[in-house]
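Subject: NADP-dependent oxidoreductase domain-containing protein structure
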Amino acid sequence: DGDVQRACLASLRRLAVKQVDLYLVQNPRGGRLLETWRAMLRLRDLGLARAVGVSNFGPAQLAGLEAAGLELPELNQVELHVWWQQPELAEYCAARGIALMAYSPLGRAQFFGRTALRCIAASSGLSEAAVCLRWCLQGGHLAVPKAADPLHLAENFAAWAAPDQPLEEEALRRLAGLGALQWRACAASRAQELPWEDLAGDLPPEERRPDRDEELPDATGIRSSCASPDQSSFYRPDPRGSSMCGRWRMVAAGSSAEKEAFGER
């Protein structure tokens, strides 16, 4: 409890404020989750944070907090985009009133111009980035995009500017098909799969560091959505073969899942 409060107070001093709007547990890999979460709730009770939440928590970790009889987070910030849609987590959070925030709503733009998203954006009169953001918002989620230049900033605002012009049902259906790729861009998101029994108690110091510095496979192995099918180069699997990393999900060339993802249906 003391460590969490000291860290929060240090942040408040650096920000020169008396309260933050939202304070998050960055990653569950630190262990002592029950102890840490009780301390987070205490921060809110003390008025140091208006709301408290978590980041990179999966259903099993949220269920662990719930089983312990603790109040659930008000928000869970995770990697979430059209190529990593997390339906199980989204359903869990929606059923319990936990807001879901996407910290990488564009998937780092690794697939832009390479999947059916390009065709969906063209038919909708929007950029691919704006379609990704609208998909997130129409799903009832929050999104935190970046902006490298004024054009990106304008595209971000465009996603919010026309709530009376949502993506059409056919566009949403095709975007749902992109989830077949099961691809993630951020190594830290792998912490969602860590089993609760390994996190609730104390962890050795060497196991507490998040996977933020590890690289995940990029999208360079993907073929263009408008190129003729090359069945030998569809999806490049992660050579590590880990079930907890952002590897490609192997989909049979020529299958309905492939055709859906690459705009060939």
